[in-house]
């Protein structure tokens, strides 16, 4: 396992992050614990969750599952970079959501209790909240940092201008600001190249791509068979493009999912790629991505199959 700096911070994170959205609702607790153990023993030190994760088990269920795993062996917390998120509705109560200072503080307290830890290493805003003034958001974040309840702050699903606006403001206050952005980015969906990646590069923000396999589209034909109708329909719509990609992977004698993950590790600003396995077998497959090195010709061929979007402003300004 290789390690990279999280943006411009000095914190080192594994190039693969274990995303936990499936743990609990799709992956039973016993197998989830096996997966977590295997991930850590394989060198993954970065675990990402969110207060809303839990699916049919209810919001907070995944954080609680992680808390029980950490409680089995308190030494597991040492060495782990633990990330969670705030924004999504946690109940029907009107103020139990968003990025008001009140909700940020109360949501963080609740996450710490479910996780059974004293500190969340990376606390991320799950979405931009256009109704919340930056001064209000950072009043809460600064309070949590001062109290030792969080260390770094990141964003998720932010536009490029949101990253720039936030870090310009924080920089003028001689504060660190955002160190990471967790955004949708994969071979199939490259819109981040227009504004988000240039903003990340310009402000020293580490990109944490989510959905690296485009919901399974980039994992090969067997991954969509019998799955959601929408996923199967999307594959049919883009069948020619995906078949060319799969033929390319076959020429390299490599699984499509491994190529898709490896490609992301070759992209600028990427600090770590979030994988979301639902089984130990899927985790083991994902772990092979770091050892796959793509040469210039292979990267160029992938750009032919999945044309790049940018970067901005060169994509449209002249």
Average pLDDT, rounded to a whole number, is 94
State which percent range the strand residues make up: 5-15%
**Helix coverage percent of residues?**
25-40%
CATH superfamily: NADP-dependent oxidoreductase domain
CATH third-level topology = TIM Barrel
How many structural units, i.e. domains? Answer: 1
State the end-to-end distance: 42 Å
Poorly predicted spans: none
For the biggest sheet, the summary is: 8 strands, parallel
Total number of helices: 11
Write out key terms for the chains shown.
eight-stranded parallel beta sheet, TIM Barrel, two-stranded antiparallel sheet, 318 residues, alpha/beta
Topology readout:
Elements: E1 3-5, E2 12-14, E3 16-19, H1 29-41, E4 46-48, H2 61-72, E5 81-86, H3 101-115, E6 120-125, H4 134-146, E7 150-156, H5 160-172, E8 178-184, H6 196-203, E9 206-210, H7 229-237, H8 239-251, H9 256-265, E10 273-275, H10 280-286, H11 296-305
Parallel strand pairs: 3-4, 3-10, 4-5, 5-6, 6-7, 7-8, 8-9
Antiparallel strand pairs: 1-2
Helix pairs in contact: 2-3, 3-4, 5-6
């Amino acid at each position: 396992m290789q390690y990279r700096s999280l943006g411009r911070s000095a914190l080192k994170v594994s190039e693969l992050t274990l995303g936990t959205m499936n743990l609990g609702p799709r992956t039973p607790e016993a197998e989830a614990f096996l997966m977590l153990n295997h991930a850590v023993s394989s060198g993954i030190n970065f675990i990402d969750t969110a207060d809303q994760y839990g699916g049919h088990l209810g919001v907070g269920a995944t954080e609680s599952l992680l808390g029980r795993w950490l409680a089995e062996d308190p030494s597991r917390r040492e060495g782990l970079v633990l990330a969670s998120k705030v924004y999504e509705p946690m109940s029907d109560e009107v103020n139990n959501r968003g990025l008001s200072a009140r909700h940020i503080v109360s949501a963080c307290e609740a996450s710490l209790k479910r996780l059974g830890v004293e500190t969340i290493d990376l606390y991320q805003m799950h979405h931009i909240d256009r109704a919340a003034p930056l001064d209000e958001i950072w009043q809460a974040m600064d309070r949590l940092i001062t109290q030792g309840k969080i260390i770094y702050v990141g964003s998720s699903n932010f536009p490029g201008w949101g990253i720039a606006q936030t870090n310009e403001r924080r920089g003028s206050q001689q504060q660190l600001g955002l160190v990471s952005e967790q955004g949708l980015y994969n071979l199939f969906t490259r819109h981040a190249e227009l504004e988000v990646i240039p903003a990340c590069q310009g402000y020293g923000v580490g990109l944490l791509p989510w959905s690296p396999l485009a919901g399974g589209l980039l994992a090969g034909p067997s991954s969509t068979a019998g799955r959601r109708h929408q996923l199967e329909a999307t594959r049919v719509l883009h069948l020619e493009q995906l078949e060319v990609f799969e033929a390319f992977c076959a020429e390299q004698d490599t699984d499509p999912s491994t190529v898709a993950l490896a490609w992301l590790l070759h992209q600028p600003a990427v600090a770590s790629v979030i994988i979301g396995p639902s089984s130990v077998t899927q985790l083991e497959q994902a772990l092979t991505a770091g050892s796959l090195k793509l040469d210039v010709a292979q990267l160029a061929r992938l750009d032919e199959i999945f044309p790049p979007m940018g970067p901005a402003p060169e994509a449209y300004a002249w």
